Amino acid sequence: MTAPARPATATPSPITGGLAEGVWCLSTPNSSYVLAVAADGRLVQLHWGARLSPGDGPRLGEAAAVPPYQLPLESQEPLPVDGGLRWGPPSLQIAFPGGVRSLELKLVDDVVAAEPGAHRLDLVLADTHFPLQVVLHHRVREDSDVIERWVTLRHTADSGEPLRIIRADSGNWLIPQLGDYRYSVVSGGYYAEGQLRRGRLPDGEYRLTSRTGITAHHANPWMMIDDGTATEAHGPVWSVALAWSGSWRLTAHRQFQGRAAVSAGFGHDGLSWPLDPGAELTTPPILGLYTDGGFGAASRGWHQHARTHVLPHPGEDRPVLYNSWEAVEFDVDETAQLDLARRAADLGVELFVIDDGWFSTRTSDRSGLGDWWPNPGRFPNGLAAVARHVHQLGMRFGVWVEPEMVNPDSELYRAHPDWVLHFPHRRRDELRRQLVLNFARADVRAWALDWLDRLVTDNHVDHLKWDMNRGFSQAGWPERGDAQDWLWIDHTRGVYQVIDQLRARHPALRIESCAGGGGRVDYGILARTDQVWPSDNTDAYQRQSIQHGLSQLYPAIVMSAWVTDKPYSHDEQRNQYAYHVAMAGVLGIGGNLNAWTDGRHEQARRNIGLYKQIRAIVQHGAQHRLGDPPGAGLTAIQYLLGDETVVFVYRPRAEVTPDPDTLPLAGLDPDATYTDPDTGTVASGRTLMSAGLPVCSRLPAGDWASAVIRLNRTG
Questions:
Q1: What is d(CA 622, CA 628) in angstroms, rounded to the nearest whole number?
Q2: Where in the sequence is the signal peptide annotated (predicted)?
Q3: Are 132 and 112 in contact (CB under 8 A)?
Q4: How far is residue 43's CA from residue 63's CA, in Å, rounded to a whole number?
Q5: CB-CB contact of 401 with 355 (8 Å)
Q6: Alpha carbon 88 to its chain's center
Q7: Cα–Cα distance for residue pair 130/100, rounded to 1 Å
Q8: Residue 319: which of 523, 564, 560, 580 has the closest Cα?
């Protein structure tokens, strides 16, 4: 007899509460975020941290007040405005007609909606007099601890004067009261991107920003906050990241009363944007993640979110590529490229990329940018013949492009000098002998999409390395008059649009984001590209710290890492160390294969073969950073996927003091047994995580020692 079917149990919504109660609680698998209406009508944040039990939100209490006048704590607001009794950094500033700059917002509606695998809360606020509506959007997903927030500003009148937006952050995140506050960020510069910095959050305001028009090399739009005691494996950590690839600003505000908040958004000081009647502006997402598992758990949470909800094709294995730049630089022609392609295929390379110099009159950086057709003298049979040969060798075919740039010495610039960023009566400063095309213009976007589409179609291109080698200068658009500041936003959105439309036409196309190295690395560009180029610096020792900083937020599957000839082609052990550093990301080769010895070719062939065996673990697995920081001693990176584990161990310098004999691992099943297939050694997960994995015996003597150790769960 068949048992009667049980009634389906509805999955409880991760968003509870509503306007009637004046409290909303948004929950992820391991955290909760609570908003409420305070007694004075302000919308405030009451909690962001450990997951709460159902019904706990309304019991959290009232909003904080600041002595001596008991004013509301403005940093507690999810979007502090410029107006009223507020003197901290505003997240929203509007200039209304008549010079009025004070906002007075009132909550008028809330909307909760289910989305595939997610739930969304929209809180609608309106100014008490002027035709402005501000919508605070929130999204929580069933399988991610990342909470997404963004803002829409609407001019609700049908006619009349525009409103002028001076600052429009995507949200302000209140950090709970802690004994102290420590920030973690990355800073640096060209050739030294992604250097991890930690320090005590100073009183007042601490700001990171880019005014370059792109994400920038000197900082990245994210920050982690802890109480000063968190480690890789332990302690509460709050982190905030902005998904935007243009100019940005992130402000941490620490108050004497013992609270801190982080606000971030696009734009920078000195710009403003007129919002016409009936128009709206939607900000990029600002993402927040809380964990109680230290910096390592925070990183793994971000990595999983990127692989699941950001990257276009996260389930794919990224191919091993070869890039021909270091072999020939601008001396590019069909014969040399085909010879390099044959050598690359023999090594096991899967993607062959021709870098700068293949088009128009591009024999140096002086000319040709903007004229995107193969140089007929160098490619008499066109790029299609090269692509066909590369495909016959069993590899995919890619090319370097820089669509946002133009050389003044080009047919494009001579025909359309008005297409570049410029002001009347001001010089046009060149950098790298190039100017920036204005992708806010519809005609520029149409031109770019047309030639990119033809390039990919006619030449069977599988991969584009999309570069952007300079920041904005003289960033004007004279035809737009008082509205020309929109180009700072619409250029980036125009780049997004062109990439999105190109990929829609060519679903098999894959793209790498590059900007003179790591100048465009963020969750905005990663939503439409497959990987990024972290830095033009390919020195393996220096790449360790660059990749270490990048890994705080971004997973290994997006981290393109090459082995090149600089500066150690003569040293076999240092070359091996370079392979092991690059294999912790997406392995690529960038050296001059024509000058390599047979030994170097064999070393490359062996390492590429090993990488193919372990890359699924590296690219899709959970990462644990072990040991010392890069360059400070014995450093290791561990990746786990299913029953397989791979550990990269590095000791770039042989110190006088001995290294530890063993390295405690992480994330294993303590009751399972693990086997090293290379040595046959068997140990329990508990032993490997407490006593540690023997590593010194696996490292060669001397400087630049490294090893790859694999473990398989066997019981």
A1: 19
A2: none
A3: no
A4: 9
A5: no
A6: 29
A7: 10
A8: 560
380, 412 Cβ separation under 8 angstroms: no
Distance CA 473, CA 422 (A): 8
How many Cα atoms occupy the beta-carbon half-sphere of 224 within 13 Å?
31
Please say whether the beta carbons of 212 and 253 come within 8 A.
no
The SS3 assignment for 489 reads helix
Alpha carbons 70 and 307: distance in angstroms, whole number: 45
State the Cα torsion 613-614-620-625 to the nearest 10°.
Answer: 180
How far is Cα of residue 2 from the mean position of the Cα atoms in its chain?
Answer: 53
Would strands 405-406 and 531-532 be described as parallel, antiparallel, or unpaired?
Answer: unpaired
Q: Which token pair is 210?
A: 């880019």
Catalytic, out of 333, 458, 536, 703: 536
Q: What residue has token string 């929950």?
A: 27
Instruction: Please report which confidence band the pLDDT of residue 258 belongs to, taking 50, 70 and 90 as the band edges.
Output: confident
Residues composing the chain: 715
Q: d(Cα 345, Cα 307) in Å, to the nearest integer?
A: 29
What letter does residue 660 receive in the DSSP assignment?
A: P
Q: Which residue has the tokens 């494996």?
A: 233
Q: Is 143 a catalytic residue?
A: no
Cα(702)–Cα(576) distance, integer angstroms = 13
pLDDT surpassing 60 at residue 2:
no
Q: What is the pLDDT of residue 666?
A: 98
The domains found in the chain, sorted by start residue, are: 84-298 (2.70.98.60), 626-713 (2.60.40.1180)
Nearest 5°: CA angle at 572, between 547 and 597? 115
User: How many other CB atoms are found less than 10 A from the CB of residue 482?
Assistant: 10
**Out of 467, 485, 490, 676, which one is annotated catalytic?**
467
Active site residue 678: no
Whether residue 5 has pLDDT greater than 90? no
Give the single-character DSSP code of 466: E
Cα–Cα separations (whole angstroms), residue 233 to 136, 300, 573, 710:
34, 11, 32, 22
Question: Per DSSP, what are the bridge partners of residue 374?
Answer: 359
Give CA–CA dist 224/551, Å, rounded.
13
Token couple for 64: 């904080």
Read off the pLDDT of each residue in 141-154 and give the average, rounded to a whole number: 98
- Would the pLDDT of 100 be above 90? yes
